[in-house]
């Protein structure tokens, strides 16, 4: 009999009611692909919370093994770039949405989706960073390409206690920026200051509708919250500044006006990690391997086991998870 391994499976019944189970599966149950990877570490992102609870339509093929990112070792490969024993990372590409994902001890994927694990990292380090941290780096690269430097002025990070937020705070501080952290959990001030935030503001300051243009407070921002918060972030960005939009923790809407764009020349930069081209991913992971303080990363990350994924996925949507969660799959 073929070797079995554990997988989390989300399914829908005829009435589209979603259920989540842990099942024993074999390699034959996995979807097509030219590389099989032993998943050594994965993580729980906000998006995985949405997929497991069914709160938003992340899953677009049923049943599905959720989990949008993993790191591990190639077991077998028919892809020219990879051979057995290679250490790899996968983020996005529809994995955990339309292609069986990370919450199984093995994954069969398209080799074009993989990138090499930087030499300085272990799979667990890569997943302490995860899609959230890689997205944080995509935001920083976008700000840099827009000409923002530490001399431009402070950078605001919204959702600062979350995954994208906490890695952003840590990276920006290491790169010499003055960081303003916006959070609903002001009790976590010591945690955020330890990551490198200079100032903490209550997210309530930004979450209610405000004026089209406000006092100029920051040179740029990394926003993972969207909605009214992003509108207020834009209206308080200084002349010529840039803001990256990567998330929707408050909402998908953006009730703003053109005022910040036409009167202050502000740029709104969209960030997508899922379909980002390989060259940009490699640039982001290379920068993560040099620019992220290992000690700070350790302080952001909490390690859980495979059996704790489902509970954690629910908790992340309730704002109960601080920083990053690493799932040890070994
Ligand atoms: P987390 O849940 O770890 O962080 C989100 C944070 O947002 C929370 O910790 C909280 O921070 C804040 N927040 C939550 N609810 C609200 C609310 N109602 N109003 C204001 N702030 C709120 O998620 P991730 O960091 O993994 O992801 C953040 C966002 O980025 C998500 O929307 C996710 O879907 C998106 N994302 C997008 C990617 C892309 O490719 N564009 C890739 C990765 C993530 P605090 O407690 O500090 O207030």
From TrEMBL:
Keyword flag Oxidoreductase: yes
Record keywords, A-Z: Oxidoreductase
Domain Enoyl reductase (ER): 17-327
GO molecular function: oxidoreductase activity
Entries under SMART domains matching the protein: PKS_ER
Recorded superkingdom: Bacteria
PANTHER family referenced in this protein's UniProt entry, alphabetically: ACRYLYL-COA REDUCTASE ACUI-RELATED, SHORT-CHAIN DEHYDROGENASE/REDUCTASE
The name this protein goes by in its record: MDR family oxidoreductase
Lineage of the organism: Bacteria, Pseudomonadati, Pseudomonadota, Alphaproteobacteria, Hyphomicrobiales
